Amino acid sequence: MSSAAKYSRRVKRAELGTRTHAHMSNDFIERVREFSGEMVSYTADHVPIN
Question: Within a domain: residue 43?
Answer without folding.
Answer: no
